[in-house]
Fold this sequence. Notes:
By secondary structure, the protein is mainly beta. The protein has a single domain, classed as Porin (Beta Barrel), CATH 2.40.160.20. The protein contains 1 helix and 8 strands. It has one helix at 2-22; strands at residues 26-38, 51-62, 66-85, 91-111, 116-134, 150-162, 165-174, 189-198. Strand 4 and strand 5 form a beta hairpin. The protein starts with a helix and ends with a strand.
Amino acid sequence: MKKIYLSIYLLALTCVAAQAQLIPSIQFGIKGALNFSSIPSSKDLLSSDTRTGYQAGFYARFGAVGLHFQPELYLTGKSADAKFKDENGGEATAKVTFTSLDLPLLLGTRIGLGPIGFRIQAGPVVSFLTNKGIGDAFKNVMHTDQYKNQAWAITGGIGVDIGKLRADLRYEHGLSDLSKNDSYPQKLRLWNFGIGYRLF
């Protein structure tokens, strides 16, 4: 299934590249965001409650009219609550945290003229985990080395450009499990709201 998604995406990217040659335009800027993540498990190991995290990084945009390609690179913090049985059989909780470098590769279209425009964007996201943290009690159930160092997701949302300011609202849904343990599959669900500034 991933190969099908990637093939469709590469085909669309080729179309964007062809259009960008007709209407060359390059933007580069900085961006920060708040994210609201949950990592539910099929066996209720992780709570579906939403936890707040962050994003900070850069974006570029190629193409101005019609379709555009927008790669981004962020340092991202995500977290979830783990619920499990302790040594005495009682219910215990612990916080699970992930820090990652996220690379969204977005295709989008912009509606509007001049300094104000509205955008719709979507595309895959690959995350490279740089830090995995779990509470001491949770180490009896899962270990940090049981989490993968790379994960795929798909994201999409809307945005607005006002002069050099950028604002985005997106939803991200995990395509691959974060856990190597097949008994506890875990896929990310995340909303984020970001503010950016175009440098040039």
